[in-house]
Each structure stands twice: as structure tokens, then as C-alpha cells.
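Exercise 3.2. Students should predict the tertiary structure of the chain below and write it as C-alpha cells, then compare their answer with the key that follows.

Predict this chain's 3D structure.
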Amino acid sequence: MRRMIRANVERSFRVRVRLLAGCMAVVCFGTLTAQLFRLQLLEGEWYARKAAGQQLRDTVVPADRGEIYSANGVLLATNASCWTIRASPREIPDDKVALAAAGMADILQLDHAEVLEKFSQRSSNDCLLKYRVDKTAADAVRDFCEQNGVTGILINQDSKRYYPQGAFLASVLGFTNVDNVGVSGLELQYNSRLTGSAGLVMTAANAWGYTMQHSYAAIETPVQGDSLVLTIDTNIQHYLENALAYAVAEHNVAQRAVGIVMEVNTGRVLAMATTQAYDPNQPRVIYDETVRAAVEALNGEEKAAARTLAQQTQWRNKAVSDLYEPGSVFKLITAAAALDAGVVTPNSTFLCTDSINVAGTRFHCANHRRHGVQTLTQCLMNSCNQGFIQVGARLGKQKFYDYFKAFGLCEATGIDLPAEPKKSEHYTAERMGPVELASCSFGQSSKISYLQMLSAVCAVVNGGKLMQPYVVQQVVSPEGRVLQQTQPVLKGNPICEQTSLAMRQMMEQVVLKGGGHNAYVAGFRIGGKSGTSQKLDSEDENARIASFVAAAPIDDPQVAVLVCLDEPHSWTTAGGSLSAPVCAEVLEHTLTYLGIARQANAEENEQHALAAAAVPVQDGDSDNGL
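Answer key:
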């Protein structure tokens, strides 16, 4: 009996043990199975990425930016090879840290203490030493490491933007930063098109994160960005830049000069310059020697602020970004508006005496000249302020503003360059009183951009078509396929063809017999208008902008040129004396280059010679007229 009881107890115990073992097995294997399910199925992708991150080291291979070409095929912006030097401090042998820091500081011209501090962070896997190192320095780093048994120094090939023509067209092209991202100009405006797709190199690493010798590498090839073909012709650009540079030096222009050459019927910009310029290969170097010396004479925060201001000023494309009082050049718009509205004709007469009283404010002509009774054509030839005040009064403030707006002078032109102001500074009809209308009529009290002014003048002479200006003709893929072709855009028709014809005839008389005689070029029919505007917001009451606008051949206009000298310090500030010769030089070279033949006209030459002898040195350009 006792034996049976004992057997039953043992049997029960074994059953319990087996049940317990079974339960434990179920729990253990269930837990293991659940863990495997979680690790392999639910979180498998995460762990795979983590393992790859520990076992692989990836290096981004930057793509070249697209290139920029002129309309005549000259390379303006391309890419040059450079190298980036990085380090993996934990891969540098302990006994080589001090040596490596000294060597890198010496070769790369870095602060030794800072490099040693970076290398002393033994857990670090990556630190930057220097961007954009040239081949000589990269080779020196490589030789140093090989000769001294230093590991952990990485030499990665990179590319940087290179401008083969130096300062040529700098304000239009702009430049890039150390990361090859556009900062200004076309480089900024078309950054997304110019930027390519980066490549990737992946190499195996061991358990400590060191790159394994003879390990494999997987490469994703970088793709270059799209290229640009501009409307800018380098020959015409050279004519413009050379003439401007001479004028800036000759007349001591304090606030730089602006020049634009435009195809009148399409809005294509053939040349655009702001002088003095800068070299986009070294954009942070201040290229105006006087300004640079003034900055270097300062200290501390004052010096840093002055340097930043000087850099931003030289990068600024005044032709697009700055607003200015156009002065008497604007009389072309007032005359065209009044003719088109039918309130005057070219033969309408106006009286110019010592001054004219407008709502208690007296206006006079430049140098207090009295022109007497004149036709509208003569008012334009003499740049008579009083005559144009009367023209503006006949037009009225509402029509004046309507034409001002129709000529595109209220809002941005829409050119494909950055930093264009969204609107000008002007009076609406509601805000314009008699005095404001008077001063606006001869080109003061409103501020527009240089580009707006030339675009409006193109509409005056091309039959009344306001065209949107542009500088990029094509966007081209790396394979040479045209991705985008810019077509001329008509923005409006502010005046009719008959008005445009009358304006062309009047503008030609300005050059043949009036204040624009310095823009005359023998054999070419040229029309133009001068301007000498006061800078009303300047602390210097004598600050002036000397300007001239011209179009040719005026009987069938092809190109127009605007030249503005901002604060010249010369024997005069008159635009007809300082800027007109610059226009003449640019037009003569440009028309000859474009194959437009000269026309021998002895009678015309004689007329011009007589007129030039009769016109006084100080022409009739407007200052503020008060």
C-alpha cells in the first residue's frame, strides 16, 4: 500500500514537472518567437539601417552646377576642381595626434590650437578642416600623411564655381557661397535649375568605425545641373563696360554708374553693367580701393559693419534693384502720353519765362534759362521744365497717372533677375496735387528703376509695345537638349504707332539740333534725351544723376541704350555733356557690330555741326526746377 501511494506521488510530481517544463517552454519560446517577429518583421528595416550605418560609411559627391553661356557662345560661369579636407579623429593614432595637428595647421594655414582641440576629441568620427582647397594643398596633405604614417585624414574631391571672365558681367551673374548655392544674380535666380543631383560613394567600415582596406564601394553618379544661355552678347557687353569704366574714372562718379542695352522690339537685354564691379571669384574682396582703405581704417564692430555694407553695395545690381529720379529723360513719357491723349501736337506752343507759378510754388528751367515761345518739339530739344509743366497740366493728373501705369512704371518689369523692387515710388492720381503733377511732368518727385525707364522708352520708339525684359534665352540640359526657350512677352500697348512715329521724329531733332547733340554718330540716325536729376533724398543738395537714353536707327529702332552716372564730380553734372558721349560710343560700336550700315548724309552732318556749335555747354536738363 505504501508502495502504491509512493508511486502515485512520484507520478503526480512528474506530471507537474512536465507541465511546468511545458509552460516554461511555451513562455520562453513564445517570448523568443515574439521577439523574433518584432525584430525581423516589425523593426527589421530599422535594425538593417542601423547595421548599415555601422558597417558602411557614405560620402556625398557634389554635382557640378550647370554652366552659363553668353548669346554668342562665350563661357561665363563653369566649375573648377577643388578639395575638402576632413578628419576622423578616432582614426588618428594616439601617438600621431600632435604631429597631425601641427602638419594640418601648417599646410592649411589654420590655427594650431583649434586643430589640436578637434583631434583630441577621440570619439569624434568627422570634423571639417577646410573647404575649397586647391590641388597643391591637397597634394601636400596627402604627402604628409603618407610620409608620417598618419591615418584618419580625408581628402574629398569637390568643385567650386569659377568665372573665367573675372569681373565681366559680375552684377548679372552673381556668385555662389562655399556650399555652391547661389547668393545673388542669375546664380540665385536660377539656383534650382543650375544645381545638379549629388552622387554617393559608400565604403565598408569595421566594428570600430574605421574604413576597411580593400573594401567595396558603391557609387551613385552625380548629375550636373542645367545650363543657361543668355541674351547678353559679350561684344556689346564689352563696349558698354569699357565706356562706363572710362566715364566713371574721368568724371569721378561717386555712387557707381549704370548702363543697359536692350533690343527694343523684344525686351532682350543685350548688355547690362554696374560700374565699378567686383570679381565673383573673390566676391568678398572690396574692389573699390577708396572704400577698402576706409573700411580697413576702422576697428571692431564698426569695421565689420562697414565691410558688410561695402560688400552688399558692390554686389547690388543697380540697374535692376535701385530706384532713382529719372529727371528730364522722363519728359519722353510725358510728351508721348500728351500726344497719345490728343491734348497736344508736336507743333503746340508753350511759353517759358523766368519762372512759372504753380499753386504758389515757382518752377524755373535749369540755369534759369528763358526759352520764350516754343513748340513741343523745341521744348524737348531744349529740355524745358516750364514747357513740360504746361504739358502735364493739359494732360491732367488722372491721365498722367494712367499713362504712367500703362508704361509699366508702377510695378516690377518681371525681368528674370532677383531683387527687383515690387513697385516704384510714385503719386497716384488721388494723392497728386498741382505741384506734384508739375514736378512729376519733368521727371522729379517719382522714383523708378533704371530698367523700368529703358523699357518704357523702348515702348515709346517701337510702335507702342511694352515688352518684358529678360536675360536668359534658353535653359539647356546636360545632354544639350533645350528645356526652356524664352519668348518675348507683350505686357501692354501704352501708345499707338502714330504717337510713336511722332516721338521718334522729335527725339531725332534732340540729337541733331538740341541738347542731345553729344550722342550724334555720323552715318547713323539716332534719337535720344538727356537728364540731370537731383537726388531729393540725398543729404548733399548738389548730388545729381547724369543720364542719357538713345535709340537707333531712329527710323527703324533696333537697340536702345541708357547710361546713368550717379553723383559725378566733374566740370558739369549735365547728362547731355557726360552721359551722351558714352551712349554714342556704345551705339556706334553696337550698330557696326550688328551689321547696320552707315548712311552718308552730308546735309545732316552739317546741320549737326552747326547745332553743336550753337548749343551751350550747360544744356537744359532739369534739376528740381524750384
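Discussion points: Residues 58-166+198-226 form a domain with the Penicillin-binding protein 2a (Domain 2) fold (CATH 3.90.1310.10). Residues 2-42 form the longest helix (41 residues).
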